Amino acid sequence: MQVVNIGLVGAGSIGVRHIQAIDKVDEISLVAIADPSPVAAEIGEVRFIPVYADAESMFQAGGIDAVIIATPTEKHHKIVMVALTHRLTVLVEKPIAATVEEARDITRFANEQGCHVLVGHQRRYYPCTEKARDIIQSGQLGTLIAVIGQWTVRKDDPYYAPQWRREIEAGPILTNLIHEIDLLRFICGDIATVSAEITHHDQKFAKEDAVAITMKFANSAIGSFVLSDRTPTPWTWEMALGENSKFPKSGQNAIRFMGTKGALEFPNLVLWSHSDSEGNWQDEIQSEVIEMPFVDAYVEQCQHLCAVVQGTQMPIIDAENGTRSLDATLAAVRAATEGTRVILDLSSYQDRKNILDD
Ligand SMILES: NC(=O)c1ccc[n+]([C@@H]2O[C@H](COP(=O)([O-])OP(=O)(O)OC[C@H]3O[C@@H](n4cnc5c(N)ncnc54)[C@H](O)[C@@H]3O)[C@@H](O)[C@H]2O)c1
């Protein structure tokens, strides 16, 4: 078995999460880090691996098959492009880039270089996500009519100490909504239009306190979502599932899908329907809990990265698919700031289907 050698660019909070996952996968090994911070230097010292001040120096030193890029978002584009120049397989944290133009540039260059770029939307790797997608795509809920969801927390104050976390790139829309959008796109299909309202009336930073979004999917289903990083509630993906030990599990579901034959609570799957498929609001409605195994999505993502490098799998979420999620997410910013309904130009994508995009 050929071990895949990984370089990590950015050993901050999510970079460390990737290191923990790498340590749990036998076929993959962390061989170098690029990050100028003292914390990165300490990690390198403990693990006896070189730490470079910048990504280019690490790439030039050679010896790596793939790179995980976990720097602040505005640096993604430049570092991915340099990695592609060195013909590396890339796993870049979400969002793929700060702008759609940068993301398209990455897609174009990855194709030219014949390299794979994976985007770090780790929720796609959970069995419950896959099952929800199956239930909806197979028509078990009938025709999908609507989806409603929320992601509402109060983040801790030190979170906002770095200046970049107060900017629009680190607000709930770009940091958190993008996960929800990617999830909804994966389960329901592409998003065609987005309208939104935002508010800044609590923290008064450049980033928003909350956003409310209305969307229409290409399949004509409609959806709405509310996000805030200023409101203590039990209703987020992370708390519902206990995804991250830093955020205590509530077990409370945060998303509901509704079709003509039934409804699905998510991510702890609960299927609601009448016993008779023609049943209506005057009939009793029953629930069925669907148990799914809980996995470490970062470990799954790492294994997938390994398989992509080894040529046995195609990316579950490639640069173009990550660009679509970014495009729909940024549409929410435009819709909110310009007060318009944004129609996404889905024809601008190549429709190069990835393995799960049928
Ligand atoms: N998938 C997820 O659920 C998830 C969760 C959190 C963050 N993220 C994403 O991960 C990225 C990083 O977020 P974070 O919270 O870990 O940030 P962070 O500030 O904790 O860490 C960023 C690290 O990058 C380093 N860095 C900055 N510029 C660099 C450069 N040019 N070259 C090398 N290293 C550099 C910094 O020194 C720091 O160690 C962001 O894009 C964010 O959106 C994803």
Produce the secondary structure layout.
Blueprint: E1 4-9, H1 13-23, E2 28-34, H2 38-47, E3 51-52, H3 55-61, E4 66-69, H4 76-85, E5 89-93, H5 100-113, E6 117-120, H6 127-137, E7 144-152, H7 172-188, E8 191-199, E9 210-217, E10 222-228, H8 237-241, E11 255-259, E12 263-266, E13 270-273, E14 286-289, H9 297-310, H10 319-338, E15 342-343
Parallel strand pairs: 1-2, 1-4, 2-3, 4-5, 5-6, 7-10
Antiparallel strand pairs: 7-11, 8-9, 8-15, 9-10, 11-12, 12-13, 13-14
Helix pairs in contact: 1-9, 4-5, 5-10, 6-7, 7-10
Residues 9-15, 34-37, 40, 54-55, 70-73, 75, 93-94, 120, 122, 162, 175 line the site of nicotinamide-adenine-dinucleotide.
Estimate the helix proportion, in percent: 25-40%
What count of structural domains? 2
Q: Which second-level CATH architecture of the largest domain applies? A: 2-Layer Sandwich
CATH topology of the largest domain: Dihydrodipicolinate Reductase, domain 2
H/E element order: EHEHEHEHEHEHEHEEEHEEEEHHE
Gross morphology: globular
Q: Average pLDDT value?
A: 94
Total count of helical runs of at least 4 residues: 10
CATH class category name of the largest domain? Alpha Beta
Structural class: alpha/beta
Low-confidence stretches: 352-358
DSSP strand count? 15
Strand order of the largest sheet: 14-13-12-11-7-10-9-8-15
CATH homologous superfamily grouping of the largest domain: Dihydrodipicolinate Reductase, domain 2
Question: Can you walk me through this structure?
Answer:
The protein is α/β, with parallel strands linked by helices. It contains ten helices and 15 strands. It folds into two domains: 139 residues, Rossmann fold, CATH 3.40.50; 171 residues, Dihydrodipicolinate Reductase, domain 2 (2-Layer Sandwich), CATH 3.30.360. The protein starts with a strand and ends in a 15-residue tail after the last strand. Nicotinamide-adenine-dinucleotide (NAD) binds next to helix 1.
